[in-house]
Amino acid sequence: MFLPGSALLVVSARKTLNRLQRTHGAAALLAANEFPGLAAAIDQHAAAIRDILDLGVENSSQVPVSVLLAGYARGLLETLHDTAPTPQSPTDWQQADWTHLRLAAVCSLARG
Q: Model confidence over 15-32: pLDDT tens digits?
């Protein structure tokens, strides 16, 4: 159960999501506006994340979405050292690996 005294978790989650928006969300959104296939891929990742959080996290309805998304993103961020660098240009985003697309999808859900 999410306790009212856990406001610091929400603040920390928002900081994580804001940082992620700067590194992945804004650039991926621009690229997705240019390339419909990329937009579809990010949407599919977002749907999978929604399912994971809704069905795979016990009592998820009692936890703020920002906390769930940030926790999920932190797990992905730990694996970034094993992946390609963060895509920068819209063309780079068309070639983005699974982890970067998943992080872009987290941003999409957080904006959402």
A: 999 999 999 999 999 999
